[in-house]
Amino acid sequence: MDTKSLEYYHKLVEEKNFSKVAEFFEVSQPTITLAIKRLENEYQTKFFLRDRSHKELILTKDGEQFDKHVVTVLNELEIARKEISRNQEQMIRLGLPPIISQFYFPKITPSLANNKLLRRIEPYEEKGSAILLKMLKDGTLDMSLLSSTTPLTDKNLKAHIIS
């Protein structure tokens, strides 16, 4: 999606000067002029009045109204970009039995948050360690906190004892 025309438009509303906007975006002035003309043609209105005698650019009522929508659209698109970026971070599917989920996990949550890992964790709470172990083995989970009276001996799993 090309939002450059909207970005140019909003900056022109702020600056009221084609040259400053072109300089800001490091493009030629005709690029800005063409983008604004395309928008005005698309919406069949004039967003700006040009007073050449005073070298002044005046925003029309339609232009003011359009800018409110442009700001909203640009803000929403930025939020979408950030959300999508976060979604693309690799998520860690973490299995938790109920007791560990309720009592142990809240104790390590601040540390996970400080290391910016908390937002990447997808917790899965199951009824017991045996089910979680099966989910680990079949790849449904990336890691799990388990309770066990004996050490895990599966060569495909890496285990650490937490006391």
TrEMBL record:
Belongs to the LysR transcriptional regulatory family. This is LysR family transcriptional regulator. InterPro entries: LysR_HTH_N, WH-like_DNA-bd_sf, WH_DNA-bd_sf. One of its GO terms (molecular function) is transcription cis-regulatory region binding. It comes from the Bacteria. Residues 1-60 form the HTH lysR-type domain. Keywords: DNA-binding, Transcription, Transcription regulation. Transmembrane segments: none annotated.
